[in-house]
Design a protein that fits this description.
By secondary structure, the chain is of the alpha+beta class. 34% of the residues lie in helices and 17% in strands. The chain contains 27 helices and 30 strands. α1 runs antiparallel to α2, α8 crosses α11 and α12 packs antiparallel against α23. It starts with 24 loop residues before the first helix and ends in a 6-residue tail after the last strand.
């Protein structure tokens, strides 16, 4: 039976993908005929000239599938019936996809075959339209012919931001509306009660259960604590909202609003009855809470860590069990790939010599806190229950989306003498895309790049006049778990010795079938119990006492604060150097690695509000909710505390090169998620960039080629398979099935170990058999290697901390399938260290014992050959069982990238690349 395509955090959104059978071709044509008559927006061509652009035509970017993320009902129906695409809905998808086979012959002259020209302005012969939104005289929105990207130019600050809001609504109104409802925990009531929608709203609302007053308090605090910039941010946000709402009114009266509003029952296609609610300022905070939770919120997982530690201690005893656990945790592995590779040390969240205040649960007592109550209909059936369990596990895991990469080389190693950067965020693949491209030019703002839809009052990742910047997720721990001792009943707890009632926050949702989502009627109430130490996530006993485990996040109630840093990044009067760039991103409390390049310098800074923990507190485990173990100078009412100073965050200026693929930042700087060991996907960049820098003469093309080559590499094949084959080939392989498999794997390694098509568009992998064998072998060999020594209980507990694999086709792990991003989470480092130890090679930071085959070369070889033979015998249909997109056995399709529909427009899948979604290639030639 074909498996359903797994859904990741955002993939769970149910949107118009299938329509009822009555929407046949004839009906569609009739509907379209009636829908093509409404008035469309009128815009005239005009010339916009670039100003203050110091990139010399050497800045490029790309963001698939396309800039246009809005579609009228007629356009949605045409797409569903005939596959036709609205203008600029997918014109960046082809160039993006083509790099996978086109990169070997890439030159500087051909970069923009695969990327957009990201110069400021639009050449006069490339202007498609010019619009003065709402008839305003202080702002114009120019769109270019090639991609339809909005170039917003204002003569007043208000007009500039009004234009940014108007352009955002033009390109992403439906998506913005969806995500404001996700952030408020109201998605099912808005878009339908499909299990995927239930899971999505539950996952996010569990982490950020805000009331309207909470959202407004965040705004008030951000304004009050940031002086003139805070006041400017508020004014900018209000102007931006005015632009959004102006477009809502215009599109409503003109009847060119997104067709999804009709399909979900919010508008009537005949009478135009119904409303599209205006956006308000608290909606922006709700949106920000979603983005922050997805990409910039490292930590959590302390209770899961405690469970696996207890399993290790149960098997080995307290002392040895703790040592085994630490070896697998790899919190400061000496063989880990580092972004700051010159020996810089930035101690954070290290293991204390004498841990204090630990509140480990009693074995077997932990249960997750329920979120859903009073469920009816499809809100309480078996499918809904399974969905809730998955959402809970995802929300509470420390294995959060890492994603994004960066390659930055200083001028001393480039052909031109100017720094070069190839960088961008991996935010998944969606239709419409979560990000949108724009250029904004106005008083105090001068930038082009990508912004999250609905938060695009500033460019968040992009370029300024003479500098560019980007980010990757860093994942350092800013979330701690506290054990609050219960008193009176299950809903009171001791706070500084006083029995205190938990606060209750609720969100009631109900839904009924619509054209877009035929899920039967249902309802439920989401209920979160909040303490001063954060929301309750688990209940257990600890030392025989009844406790609730809470999660306290330093950015909780502070998602709005980061607006100041983004405002600074867009301000040409603020960012003039690496130092001023670093001062800007210091105002961003999301956990990100930030990279910078101008014509002479490069820089790096790790952002986030890292709390100063009490002496002796181990950030890996829950601690007692007592004053002695609280963050230093923590104020519960505002959730503020002392944070580590900027100098204590990993930072650097003009290192010879930087790489990041969510790997470890620097020596002694621990991240919350597991897997920072000897083999990490960061090695794929490190090895290639280091080689380029050693040779010198790096160009934009050569650095882009390094990125593109790493994007096709199978990490296991490149960095682990050679040692596995050393063990297997330590004696002659006599089994014919295993020998044939070894031959195929070795040939694939010789060819480069890439997952790449035989030719562009062939939809068939070169070395397909070898890839199939490794995909089948990896989970078998990991279990055969480690489960006997660890025992079932500990092995299972550790796999809950770190999944064993994350191939492009993987249906498990935090990114799901068809998501592009791969090889972040897995046991490749454990296999690497263990096998090297068995081979007698030097291993730094090794495991406490040899596991493979009981630690002998012969025993290890036996289990590898046995598991390899089993893997080789698996058919393609068994390895790639098929889903709603792909037939069983279709290897290429199983790996392929899908633009997940978040609206009514669908796109075809493309060949796999492990690559940023939005990407820049930049080399500035001069400076102000």
């Amino acid at each position: 039976m074909p498996r359903r395509t797994p859904r990741n955090t955002l993939d769970r959104l149910r949107t118009p993908g299938r329509f009822p059978g009555f929407l046949k071709t004839a009906s569609v044509c009739a509907l379209i005929a009636g829908l093509l008559s409404p008035i469309t927006q009128v815009a005239t061509a005009a010339e916009v000239t670039a100003a203050n652009d110091y990139c010399g035509g050497q800045c490029s970017d790309i963001l698939p599938p396309g800039e246009n993320g809005n579609a009228t009902l007629a356009q949605v129906l045409l797409n569903q019936a005939f596959g036709t695409q609205p203008d600029h809905a997918e014109d960046q998808l082809g160039p993006y996809a083509n790099l996978a086979k086109g990169y070997p012959t890439l030159t500087n002259a051909t970069i923009n075959t695969f990327f957009n020209d990201a110069s400021f302005g639009v050449a006069s012969d490339q202007v498609a339209s010019t619009l003065s939104p709402a008839g305003r005289s202080d702002v114009t929105i120019v769109r270019d012919k090639k991609t339809g990207v909005p170039h917003i130019t204002g003569t007043t600050r208000y007009g500039t931001e009004f234009g940014a809001g108007y352009a955002a609504a033009q390109d992403r109104l439906w998506l913005m509306d969806v995500f404001r409802h996700v952030g408020r925990g109201q998605l099912t009531a808005f878009a339908g009660g499909a299990p995927s929608n239930q899971g999505l709203e539950q996952q996010f609302w569990r982490n950020a259960p805000y009331t309207e007053a909470d959202l407004q308090a965040q705004i008030d605090n951000a304004v009050a604590t940031n002086g003139t910039r805070g006041q400017q941010a508020l004014a900018d946000a209000n102007a931006y909202l005015a632009g959004i709402n102006s477009y809502i009114d215009a599109s409503d009266s003109g009847r060119y609003f997104p067709g999804e509003y009709v399909l979900t029952g919010h508008k009537d296609s005949v009478t135009n009855a119904g409303t599209i609610d205006h956006f308000k300022i608290t909606d922006l905070v709700a949106l920000a809470s979603v983005i922050g939770a997805l990409f910039g919120s490292g930590g959590g997982g302390e209770v899961n860590n405690a469970v696996s530690l207890l399993a290790a201690q149960e098997k080995y005893g307290v002392q040895q069990g703790s040592e085994v656990w630490e070896a697998f945790r790899e919190r400061n592995d000496p063989e880990a790939a580092l972004t700051l590779h010159n020996g810089q040390s930035f101690p954070y969240a290290a293991k204390p010599a004498s841990p204090q205040g630990e509140a480990l649960p009693d074995t077997g007592s932990v249960t997750a806190e329920p979120l859903v109550y009073d469920a009816t209909g499809t809100g309480g059936d078996a499918t809904a229950s399974a969905t809730s369990a998955t959402a809970t596990a995802t929300a509470l895991s420390s294995a959060r989306r890492g994603m994004s990469n960066a390659l930055v080389v200083s001028g001393q190693s480039t052909a031109s003498g100017h720094p070069i950067a190839v960088f961008g965020p991996q935010t998944g693949y969606f239709a419409p895309q979560l990000l949108m491209l724009q250029e904004i030019q106005g008083p105090g703002i001068s930038a082009r790049g990508a912004s999250f839809a609905g938060l695009s009052m500033y460019v968040e990742l992009g370029r300024g006049q003479d500098y560019a910047w980007s980010a990757t997720t860093s994942g350092q721990d800013i979330i701690d778990s506290y054990a609050v001792e219960l008193c009176q009943d299950d809903y009171h707890y001791l706070y500084h010795g006083t029995c205190t009632a938990m606060d209750v926050v609720e969100q009631k949702n109900a839904w009924k079938p619509t054209t877009a989502d035929g899920t039967a009627a249902g309802s439920y109430t989401m209920r979160v119990y909040r303490t001063k130490y954060g929301p309750v996530e688990y209940r257990a006993t600890a030392g025989g006492k009844k406790v609730a485990y809470t999660t306290l996040r330093s950015s909780f109630m502070h998602e709005a604060d980061s607006i100041i840093g983004f405002q600074m990044l867009n301000d040409p009067d603020h960012v003039k150097s690496p130092q001023t760039f670093q001062s800007a991103v210091q105002h961003i409390n999301y956990t990100f690695n930030w990279f910078y390049a101008d014509s002479a310098h490069t820089a790096y800074y790790n952002s986030g509000d890292n709390p100063v923990r009490a002496s002796g507190v181990d950030a890996e485990f829950p601690v007692w909710a007592q004053a002695a173990y609280e963050w230093k100078n923590w104020v519960p009412a505002t959730n503020t505390a002392d944070y580590t100073p900027a100098s204590a965050h990993p930072n650097s200026i003009d290192q010879d090169y930087y790489i990041s693929w969510n790997n470890k930042q620097a020596l002694n700087y621990s991240t919350a998620s597991w897997g920072d060991g000897s083999v990490h996907r960061g090695n794929l960049l490190e090895d290639r960039v280091k080689k380029l820098v050693a040779a010198g003469g790096v160009t934009r093309a050569s650095l882009t080629k390094a990125m593109a080559d790493a994007a096709l590499a199978d990490l296991r094949a490149e960095d682990v398979l050679p040692d596995l084959l050393k063990v297997v080939n330590s004696a002659t392989v006599t089994d014919s099935t295993a020998a044939a498999a070894v031959t195929k794997l070795q040939a694939w390694l010789t060819a480069g170990g890439r997952r790449t098509e035989t030719a562009a568009g062939s939809k068939t992998y070169a070395d397909a058999d070898a890839i199939r064998i490794l995909d089948a072998w990896w989970p078998l060999l990991v279990k055969a290697e480690f489960a006997p020594g660890l025992g079932t209980g500990l092995y299972t507990a550790l796999t809950a901390n770190l999944p064993i694999d994350e191939t492009p086709s993987a249906a498990h792990g935090p990114t799901g399938a068809h998501a592009g991003s791969s090889f972040q989470y897995g046991w490749w480092s454990y296999v690497d260290k263990d096998v090297r130890a068995v081979l007698g090679e030097t291993v730094q930071g090794g495991l406490t014992q040899k596991y493979c085959g009981g630690g002998t070369l012969t025993g290890c070889r036996d289990i590898l050959i046995s598991s390899l033979k089993e893997a080789a015998g698996k058919t393609a249909a068994q390895v790639y069982p098929g889903d709603t997109l792909c037939a069983a056995g279709n290897q290429w399709c199983a790996d392929s990238i899908v633009q997940r529909t978040l609206g009514g427009i669908k796109h075809g899948n493309i060949s796999w690349q492990n690559r940023p979604t939005f990407q820049q290639v930049v080399e500035f030639t001069s400076h102000r």
